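quick one, 191 residues, struct below
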Amino acid sequence: MLPQAIRLDPETGWCHGARHCPSPNFNERPSGEVSLLVIHNISLPPGQFGTGRPAALFQNRLDPAEHPYFEGIAHLRVSAHFLIERDGALTQFVGCHQRAWHAGVSRFEGREGCNDFSLGVELEGTDDLPFTEAQYDCLKVLTAELIRCFPAIDAARVTGHSDIAPGRKTDPGNCFDWVRYRADVFEGEGQ
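---
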């Protein structure tokens, strides 16, 4: 279910070609450019797909009574800019000009607080299951558009949550094919 065209509106920071589900979990960025793309994974309950629960979490609608795992996370106020589901469906929760709350305590190249200067993309999945063709296809198109709009993001500035929060986070996990993804997005780009 790859969006035919993903185009970021430079005024609003919202993408045409994505379903819009605004999250209240964001705030304004400090001054400075967006220069980092962070790849995550999420599934709620863990290992279950197509539940709609990641969106509920990002919109503060997750019912802790629905599953024992939710009791420990329903109070969290988190979000990401984007979620790519297993079928490649793309949802946007926070405009790209705003600061989503996806990275938490984090550091990239000595700079702390990655939410201040990054965009977060969640892939529906787990650390130990391969991601789908549809997800890689959508991520490729989305990444190309984000790089077009935020040229400070290059191959060296696309990273995993595990890389900016080592010891605390493990996503997107060992099953994320970084070689394939980087070749899909950056091959022939001179980056």
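The longest strand covers residues 36-42.
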